[in-house]
Amino acid sequence: MLFNLFLNHSDLFLGSNLFRYLTFRTGGSILTSLLISFIFGKSFITWLKSKQGEGQPIRTHGPQSHIVTKKGTPTMGGALILISVTVATLLWADLENTYVWTVLLVTLGFGLIGAYDDYLKLTRRSHDGLSGKKKLITQAIMVCVATYFVIKAQDPKMATQITFPFIKEFMIDCGYFFYIWSFFVVVGAANAVNLTDGLDGLAIVPVMISASCFALISYLVGNAVFSNYLQIHHVQNTGEIAIFLGAIIGAGLGFLWFNAPPAKVFMGDTGSLAAGGALGMTAIITKHEFVLAIVGGLFVIEAISVIIQVGYYKMTKKRIFLMAPIHHHFEKKGWEEPTIVIRFWIISVILALVGLSTLKLR
Fold first, then answer.
1. 227 in a domain, yes or no?
2. 238 burial level (CB within 10 Å; 0-12, 13-18, 19+)
3. Which of 2, 78, 93, 182 supports an S-S bond with 243, CB 3.0-4.6 Å?
4. How far apart are CA 37 and CA 264, in angstroms?
5. Partners of residue 172 on adjacent β-strands
6. Which residues, 6+ apart, have CB-to-CB distance to 87 below 8 Å?
7. Following CA atoms 186, 321, 204, 353 in sequence, which dihedral angle do they give, to the nearest 10 degrees?
8. b or e along 138-154 (b: 16 or more beta carbons within 10 Å of the residue's beta carbon)?
């Protein structure tokens, strides 16, 4: 909004040229979402407590310490993230950019699915929320609609192509199968982040790390000079997504203030599905889907641990891990929660550095 206002009336405002710079507006987006989270966070959590009573239902078959330490903690804190991200994005981004609206609406759509799932769990006082089938159907519809607009906005020669890290020229044109690919990436990312969100602060920091990486990637991919120098595929106008991702970073920092151990609020499916959907859609737009699997490798590890556990148990009636996702396995082994969280953050940073290295190693 500010970009469009100052761009059209640059002769009326001193310093309006600053709004032409993506770096300036990304910084403004980070600070705006951070301040919204700080200012309204405490009162928002108090309101959630008043509405939710006993808070998020705690799994009785999970780590026994959770029954004591996490009982009564409200969920749906992801709504605070969504509000902060939406306001900051609308304030600082170019509202004529198709990609901005696409990632924002996918994020809000996945957030609404997660919010309804959280609501059902709270009202039923169980972990039986929205069925997996209904989740997949609604997510599929949203992703297919979003993918349609992304394809229409991009160069036809690039729109349905899949690119690969460490390789300069090789691409695969998926045609209409690109919709399936997009569904796999976005829904996979959303549910992987959702599985990771099991300990205080565990998911939100890797989300911010991944968002930081893709803010840089979207800026470089959208800049013809930088993309040519790095020999990565140029996708025009993706730079504006950096402002949206900046809003996620700021909102994530604000949320972490209240989610740090011991957490005063959980993000719930409201936040985790939305954050994963945002990262997945960004990867689709910037043509860096495989890089997301590297940068967000922690989410991949968590998801794979569940797949392995379920598949192995169905075949043998035995378990490989003490509990899945894998962060609960380490809890069962006696690791303290802060130890698990910080070590997983370190792994996330390492994977992010590996992912960023693909921008030059080609």
1. yes
2. buried
3. 93
4. 14
5. 162
6. 32, 33, 36
7. -80
8. bbbebbeebbeebbebb
Token pair 């378990």 is found at 319
Is there a domain that residue 237 lies in? yes
pLDDT tens digit sequence for 55-85: 677 665 556 555 445 677 899 999 999 999 9
Contacts of 304 (CB under 8 A, 6+ apart): none
Residue 109 belongs to what domain range? Answer: 22-357
Quick check: helix, strand or coil at residue 49? helix
* Residue-wise pLDDT tens digits, 154-183: 998 899 999 998 887 789 999 999 999 999
Q: pLDDT tens-digit profile of 187-232?
A: 999 999 999 998 999 999 999 999 999 999 999 999 999 999 998 9
Picking from 269, 84, 265, 266, the residue whose alpha carbon sits closest to that of residue 191 is 269
Q: How far is CA 178 from CA 107, 144, 174, 286, in A?
A: 20, 10, 5, 14
Considering the domain boundaries, does residue 185 fall inside one?
yes
16 within some domain: no
Residue matched to tokens 């192509």: 161
C-alpha–C-alpha distance, residues 235 and 157, integer Å: 11
